Amino acid sequence: MTKMDEHYAAFLHLRQLQVLHRKEEPVISAEAKKALEERKIKLLEAQERKAYKEMTKNVASEKYQKEDEY
User: Fold this and answer.
1) CB 36 within 8 A of CB 44
2) CA 6 to chain centre
3) Which domain of life is it from (predicted)?
4) Would you state the pLDDT for residue 33?
């Protein structure tokens, strides 16, 4: 018969332990989450403004280029 080594003994001991179901705690606080959401909204609005500005700039420059051609 094989002898029990320390790893197998630890395995048997761990197998007998009961699982504790812990209450999940939030990673960040509610205030930090709210601030993060506000920053996210501001960032999205800034990106939309930048994209709109870029689009209108391109349209305006194309319009003036066409006028210059004629």
Assistant:
1) no
2) 42
3) Eukaryota
4) 92
pTM to 2 decimal places:
0.47
- Which tops the pLDDT comparison, 22 or 51? 51
Q: Which residue has the tokens 């989450």?
A: 33
Tokens 């930090």 found at: 32
Residue type, 26: P
Residue owning tokens 């790893």: 7
DSSP state string for the chain: -PPP-HHHHHHHHHHHSPPP-PPPPPSS-HHHHHHHHHHHHHHHHHHHHHHHHHHHHHHHHHHHHHHHH-
